[in-house]
Amino acid sequence: MPPPRKINLLPAEQLEWVKTTLKSSGFSGYEQIAEALNERLQAEGLGLTIGKSALHSFGKEYAHFVRYQEEASAWAADWLNENGLEDEAQRHNVLFQMVTTLAFKVMQAKMAKNGEEIDAKELHFLGRMLKDVMSSSGIRQKLLADERKRISEEAALAERKRIADELESVVSEGGLTDERAKWLRKRVLGEA
């Protein structure tokens, strides 16, 4: 097993600074970022230095990840707006992002390995995780469709009740005979 990359040994705070700085610089200026990072690491007393090429390699991977995440977020936002599901999406957003980020990281690590280094069990678990994420999305969609149907049925029932109440008001105000009132209810409400 190869040793971990130096960038992966950074404390979480420093790694977050690197990510933020890379994004704000438009993923350029690696030499200046490496110098600033090494100054920060030295100030904290860490015996770790990150070279420009290691930072560039990480930046390239991170830029791909950011681009994919932005594309996925834009697509999801459009889809949610079209379907009126903004509130529910906010409740599930954090969990979904954590799972997809983890899946991305695992897939990225597997793609960097040679064929003989890939463990079939790990591949199986990765496939299972992705299957579970996709199937839970399908379950959620079914639950949302069922909820929309329930809301629609409740609205139709409320409208039918409103019409029935109005019809009763018309029947009583109009002084209709029981036979004419029965005929009118059957005609308007489909009642026997």
Describe the model:
- The chain has helices at 12-24, 30-43, 52-83, 86-111, 120-174, 178-189.
- By secondary structure, the chain is mainly alpha-helical.
- The longest helix is centred in the last third of the chain and has 55 residues, at 120-174.
- It starts with 11 loop residues before the first helix and ends with a helix.
Write a compact overview of the structure shown:
The chain is mainly alpha-helical and 192 residues long.
Main pleated-sheet profile: none
Secondary-structure-derived class: mainly alpha
* Chain-averaged pLDDT: 78
Distance between the termini: 79 Å
Q: What is the β-strand count? A: 0
- CA-based gyration radius: 30 Å
Number of helical regions: 6
List key phrases describing it.
192 residues, mainly alpha, 0% strand
Helix and strand arrangement:
Blueprint: H1 12-24, H2 30-43, H3 52-83, H4 86-111, H5 120-174, H6 178-189
Helix pairs in contact: 1-2, 2-3, 4-5, 5-6
